[in-house]
Write a structure and sequence with these properties.
Its EC number is 3.6.1.-. This is Small ribosomal subunit biogenesis GTPase RsgA. Keywords: Cytoplasm, GTP-binding, Hydrolase, Metal-binding, Nucleotide-binding, Ribosome biogenesis, RNA-binding, rRNA-binding, Zinc. One of its GO terms (molecular function) is metal ion binding. Its cofactor is Zn(2+). The longest helix is centred in the last third of the chain and has 20 residues. Strands 10-9-8-13-17-16 form a six-stranded mixed beta sheet. The chain has a five-stranded mixed barrel with strand order 1-2-3-5-4. It has a two-stranded antiparallel ribbon with strand order 6-7. The protein is globular. The protein folds into three domains: 71 residues, OB fold (Dihydrolipoamide Acetyltransferase, E2P) (Beta Barrel); 158 residues, P-loop containing nucleotide triphosphate hydrolases (Rossmann fold, 3-Layer(aba) Sandwich); 63 residues, no CATH class. The protein is α/β, with parallel strands linked by helices. The chain has nine helices and 17 strands. It binds guanosine-5'-triphosphate and zinc ion. The site of zinc ion (ZN) has 8 residues, from helix 8.
């Protein structure tokens, strides 16, 4: 009878095998480079925080050095800077190196751009902001986010907003078993509940926030980062003054424990999943990955895959409770597997 409840530890997130190759070639002429964190990108100009959390922390503007070629630099990147890194008005530094990334999150390919480009680097978790009502939650969209995060080597936090309008129980039941942590928030005229739980989940981590329009993502960001509206102004390349931009990802520091960042991704509605390999996704389900060692070569592990060992594992369960638990587990994995393909934005 002792059926162990599945928890976070059943999900094993590995850094993506597809993360960028090391780019730490030593160039003696840049031995004195300053380390910086990229917080925003706007038309070839990068807003960076030099010496983050150090005694000389400062904001500076940088451009890519020619030697980086076409390599993209994205928010969350750690880079090495040379030139004028003072951050003084009108100063411009050069990015000469991108430090090897721990994770990469790609946005989906679309009609105007067939490539799944990296949009954020080095984030620890993806926070999927979903309203419990108004607008109705879309599980397929959440599933796709989970796949993207697991493939990127990131964890997933589901932030369920508007709990004053609907009950979170059903969504909790759907996502907690697959290793997704859940926080529930609600904001009414006189109270904002769940904010401390959310802060706890974000503490010391870099989190990418995604969500459809109207789910309350701005409400959360503004509560977490009181000067967010001001901070999102990216430096204009001509005047050097702030300019509001709503199209590219921007990293915002959350007051409180050191190293707490949220990266807001306006306009990002979905993630590129075409490159996701089923066996890599399986890596996020440690128990199933072990079972699948027995699969035929090239098994897709889909519901219609012949001789898939996942089906044998369910069939061979010693009792009904175990069979129910294994069925739920395999179904969850296959649900994610299916969400990988098909319309990028179902129901849109
Ligand atoms: N009932 C209720 N309404 C909320 C809650 N949180 C936010 N809202 C409302 O939902 C609406 C959308 O909130 P926003 O924070 O602007 O949503 P968003 O996800 O940033 O949407 P865009 O600005 O369109 O990208 C606003 O009218 C908020 O006041 C909540 O917990 N409960
Ligand atoms: Zn299989």
């Amino acid at each position: 009878m002792a059926r162990r409840a599945l928890d976070e530890s059943d999900v094993r997130v590995r850094p993506s095998r597809k993360s960028s190759r090391p780019r730490t070639k030593t160039r003696p002429e840049h031995a004195d480079a300053d380390r910086a964190l990229v917080t925003g990108v706007d038309r070839g100009r990068y807003t960076v925080l030099v010496d983050p959390d150090g005694p000389d922390e400062r904001v500076a503007v940088a451009m890519k050095a020619r030697e980086l070629g076409r390599d993209r630099v994205v928010p969350g990147d750690r880079v090495d800077l040379v030139g004028d890194t003072s951050g003084a008005d009108g100063s411009l530094a050069r990015i000469v190196r991108i430090v090897e990334r721990t994770t990469v999150l790609r946005r989906t390919a679309d009609d105007t751009d067939p490539y799944e480009r990296v949009i954020v680097a080095n984030a620890d978790q993806l926070v999927v902001v979903t309203a419990l009502a108004d607008p109705e939650p879309r599980t397929r969209m959440i599933d796709r986010c989970v796949v993207a995060a697991y493939d990127a080597g990131m964890g997933v936090l589901l932030a369920l907003t508007k709990a004053d309008l609907a009950d979170p129980a059903a969504l909790r039941a759907l996502y907690e078993p697959i290793g997704v942590r859940v926080v529930v928030t609600s904001r009414t005229d006189d109270a904002f509940s769940g904010l401390d739980d959310l802060r706890d989940e974000l503490a010391g981590r870099t989190s990418v926030l995604v969500g459809h329009s109207g789910v309350g993502k701005s409400t959360l960001v503004n509560a977490l980062v009181p000067d967010a509206a001001r901070a999102t102004g990216v430096v204009n390349d001509v005047t050097g003054r702030g300019r509001h931009t709503s199209t590219s990802a921007v990293a915002l520091r959350v007051p409180g424990p050191a190293g707490t960042w949220v990266i807001d991704t306006p306009g990002v509605r979905s993630f590129g999943l075409a490159h996701v390999d089923p066996d890599h996704l399986l890596g996020a389900f440690a128990d199933l990955a072990d079972v699948a060692q027995e699969c035929p070569r090239g098994c897709t592990h889909a519901a219609d895959a012949p001789d898939c060992a996942l089906d044998d594992w369910v069939a061979d369960a010693p009792d009904d409770d175990t069979r129910a638990a294994r069925t739920a587990r395999v179904d969850s994995f296959r649900r994610l597997l299916v969400s990988r393909t098909g319309a990028a934005e179902p129901g849109a």
